[in-house]
């Protein structure tokens, strides 16, 4: 089972999008930055998806500060490919940020890549 936490401005919308994909082996929960950092650190969650207006600031600020940049990546306003996401996962990235206006494009690609790691 993979547990994904969502945070930031669009946290409820992202959670709804991931849930709507019906991915087997994926549990999704809405969180806040501080609780998410604690859950990731303690192994109670696997990934964090954060959204804000630019995808580069508030989406990950607290998590970068508490967990370090080695596990965090922001897509900003870009839409990643599955291959780019897989490369980031291979590097150990577990925390991802992106812009609200890219949510519909990024969330499904990212969630499917994360779910594939549990298969």
UniProtKB/TrEMBL annotation:
<dbReference type="Pfam" id="PF10941">
    <property type="entry name" value="DUF2620"/>
</dbReference>
<dbReference type="InterPro" id="IPR021238">
    <property type="entry name" value="DUF2620"/>
</dbReference>
<protein>
    <submittedName>
        <fullName>DUF2620 domain-containing protein</fullName>
    </submittedName>
</protein>
């Amino acid at each position: 089972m993979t547990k994904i936490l969502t945070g930031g401005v669009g946290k409820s919308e992202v959670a709804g999008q991931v849930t709507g994909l019906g991915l087997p082996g994926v549990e999704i929960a809405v969180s806040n930055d501080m609780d998410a950092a604690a859950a990731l650190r303690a192994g109670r969650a696997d990934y964090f998806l954060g959204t804000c207006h630019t995808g580069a600031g508030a989406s990950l600020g607290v998590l970068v500060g508490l967990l370090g940049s080695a596990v965090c990546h922001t897509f900003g306003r870009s839409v990643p490919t599955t291959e780019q996401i897989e490369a980031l996962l291979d590097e150990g990235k577990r925390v991802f940020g992106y812009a609200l206006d890219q949510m519909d494009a990024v969330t499904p690609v990212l969630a499917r890549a994360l779910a594939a790691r549990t298969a």
